[in-house]
Design a protein that fits this description.
By secondary structure, the chain is α/β, with parallel strands linked by helices. The chain contains six helices and seven strands; from the N terminus they run βαβββαββαβααα. Strands 2-3-4-1-5-7-6 form a seven-stranded mixed β-sheet, with helices on both faces. Strand 3 and strand 4 form a beta hairpin.
Length: 189
């Protein structure tokens, strides 16, 4: 069983903010694979269990707020006995240009507090991730920037990338080797 986690903050206040691109990515995936996310208190997450080509996957959106995402991830991993190689986290990244995506098999948190908390709770950084670039606005404090709404012009950059992330999620669920998925999406301009 695969576990796909989109990171973000719960609540209407945070809809369409840069920090919620992980949520937006799993929502885009679920538009193509209709399934209802339901809040599961025992996981502190909204989850949906889907099946694609006989492959089962859990789609999750932690409801703990970004910086505590590891709590929800750990609960899901423990309950369903998910192997590290079957975990995929989708997250925003200020180190990448707006709209650029980068897939990695493992790595550091790069200053992203949601990833940092997941690494802390899992005790390893050995899980797959897709980073979606949000760049940085040096005129605005970082916490305000990541929680600010995405403009229409920026959204036009994110839309095709969210489709790419959705396709990458599907390939991951279908058990396509992650190196092949990385090759496909890391080399796109």
């Amino acid at each position: 069983m695969k576990l796909i986690i989109g990171l973000g903050n719960p609540g209407e206040k945070y809809d369409k903010t840069r920090h919620n691109l992980g949520f937006m990515a799993v929502d885009r995936f679920l538009e193509k694979h209709p399934s209802e996310l339901k809040f599961e208190p025992k996981f502190d997450a909204a989850i949906s269990i889907i099946r694609i080509n006989n492959q089962k996957a859990i789609i999750a959106k932690p409801q703990t707020y970004m910086n505590l995402s590891g709590q929800a991830v750990r609960k899901i991993v423990d309950y369903y006995k998910i192997a590290l190689e079957d975990i995929l986290v989708i997250v925003d990244d200020i180190a990448l240009p707006t709209g650029k995506i980068r897939l990695r098999e493992k790595g550091s948190h790069g200053g992203q507090n949601g990833l940092k908390n997941i690494i802390s709770h899992l005790g390893t950084n050995d899980f797959k991730r897709i980073r979606i670039g949000i760049d940085v606005d040096k005129k605005m404090p970082l916490d305000q920037y990541v929680l600010s709404k995405i403009s229409k012009s920026e959204m036009s950059l994110y839309d095709p990338k969210l489709d790419d992330v959705s396709s990458a999620i599907q390939m991951f669920i279908e058990d396509i080797p992650y190196k092949d998925i990385m090759t496909k999406y890391n080399t796109q301009e």
